[in-house]
Structures are given as structure tokens and as C-alpha cells.
Amino acid sequence: MNRGKFLLKIMLCALFIFLIQVDFTFADVGNGVSHNEDPSGGGSFDFSGEGIDLWFLFYLLREHPILAVIVIIAFFLVKKFRKPTTTTTRPQNRSRPAYRPVAANLSKLKEKDPLFSDELFLSKVNNMFIQLQQAWMDKQWNSIRPFETDPLFNMHHKQLQSYIDQQRTNVVENIAILDSKIVRYENDGDHDEIDVYLRVRINDYVIDDHTKKVIKGNPNRDIYMTYIWTLIRKGNVVTEEEKEQYEVTQCPNCGANVSINASGQCEYCESVISSGEYNWVLSKIKIVSQE
Known about the structure:
Radius of gyration: 23 Å
Number of domains: 2
Low-confidence stretches: 19-25, 38-56, 84-96, 245-249, 256-264
Distance between the termini: 45 Å
Number of helices: 6
Shape: globular
Mean pLDDT: 74
Structural class: alpha+beta
């Protein structure tokens, strides 16, 4: 085997092993906000096939010098052993275009669900966003149990538990929802599914529970986040005005005062409130951008 290519494989393996051990810290609900950037900056990590992002390289040299050396050596080995192409193309602009949300056509949804109001729905989603951030900061994740599907709730619960175990708090404050709109609606027969575009401004940082010192992030830095939230409900469910609420106080099945266990069931009638059978629940969060 060519010695140079063998060395390249060794370096790439070392890079992979190092990466899985590095503590790249993310925060807000579901650890969506990256605190690895320089707080005075606002750039994002960007890798392209043509070179190394200098901003990211400076970050590695400062925080993880061994990893930086591995990246540099691997980069030059790749450049050396990459097969030349017979044609040359002008470099393309690789900057990611700004996400421009387009409002979804809701005519099919409103045809089968005449009481559905996109304005009211978005108002409730905005409120849900704030409630989730508050529950995350207060470490009271069971309080939002009716709002998430089982897989998403369990994932967030485990992530939050890591903060509890480390005796840290992820503070999310000064929340401002700048824009929200429905950008996709689909019905597969079994479920209705809606994508909501959310653009928000927050202050996000992590403190030590005992000393109250900031250990990650910058309390004075405004962070602009863009998300796509996916919400689902059973396909045969329609809007009932008196039940369209996101502060659940009564079981929609038996009417009892809500007491929801960890599996999302009403403790009186055992109906699964978090399944989307009675109302919209959050099933997926996609991060589009952070500024």
C-alpha cells in the first residue's frame, strides 16, 4: 500500500476518535444553540471540499491544538493524493442562501377541518415554544409531557437529565418570537402533519447551580435561531374550539383534572394524551440556522 495513503487513513481514524471525545456543547431545548463560537462573532462552522475554514482552524488551535494538527495534516494529504480532474471549473459561491419560508396551502386542511385557524394555531405554537424553554430552564420537563411525542420527549428528558447530573442550568431568557408561519401541510391518511417556521431571539447560557457563575455562553449576547417545528395529530381529528388549548388542565378523553405520568397517559382513564390522538403534538425540531 502506498505509504502516503496509509498515513492518510491513520490520520483520518485518529481524527474520528478525537472528534467523538471532544465536548462540543449545545444548549436551549434539545441542545440546539451552539456555544462553541466566539461570543463576539456570529460565524458558523463551514467545511468545503476546497479548503479549511480559517475561523474554525483558529478555534481548533486555541481549544484543541492536537485536533488542529490532525486536521491540517489530513487536509494536505488529501490534496496531495486526490486524483486530478480533466476540467477546471470556476469556484462557486458556497454561502448558504437565507431560508425564505413560503406559506403552505391549507385549503385541504380547512376543507376537512372548518374550525382550524392558522392564526390561532400559530399563537399556540408560539406559546408552546415559550413553555418548553421555561420547563427546560426550570428542569421540570414532565410539565410539558402532553406537548411532545414519546421519542422526542424521551430524548429531551435524557438531555435535560445530563444538566441535572452535572448540577448545571441552561438559562434561556429574553425570548422574542420574531416570525412564525405554517410552511407545509400533509395528510398521509393516518396523520395530519404541519411544519412551522419559527424565527426567535434569545439569550442562552449555562450556569453552575452552586456558584451561579456562567460556564458556557454569554448572557449579553442576542442569539437568533431559525427552526422548523413539525407537529402531528391523528388524521381523523378535527378542531374543537373548547379543546384547543396548550395549557392542558383536563384529560380530553375523560375530563378528569390532568395528572400525566411519564408515559404520557392520563392516570385515571389511561388515555395516551401525548400521541396526537386528541390534539397537535410536537414530533420533530429542525435547526435551520443560528446567528
